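Memo to structure team: turn this sequence into structure tokens by end of day. - J.P.
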Amino acid sequence: MSYGVACVECGGEIPYSRDGKTTVQFCSAKCRYKARDRKRYAENPERERERSRRYYLEHREQVLERAAAKRGRPRQPEQTTCSECGDELTGRQRVVCGPRCRDRRYARLHPEAYAAKERRKVERRKAARRQAREDAS
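Reply from structure team:
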């Protein structure tokens, strides 16, 4: 159950049974803090940069240790199959294997825009056929 409104930070639904600290604008404390931090940075970016520099100077060793620990972790495996046809991806391909699958994916994810694009294409072709008939006669 939700309030029927979207979180201003992530766009997700705001659950009705949330904790008392969350305002009706955000779906979670994480989104609330993220929005607060973005607002602070927008108000005075130099103050936030100075704060970050000061923290790094005071905690340099711990920051570098955390970064070194992350370097050793394996990454999430990249997607290896096409999201549309299931074929193996090669080279720099990340989601789909080629133009046909890219067009299929676009049509699936953006049905209204795809329909409008197809309507424009049909109109363009009709106009070209009309023009060809007029030129022939």
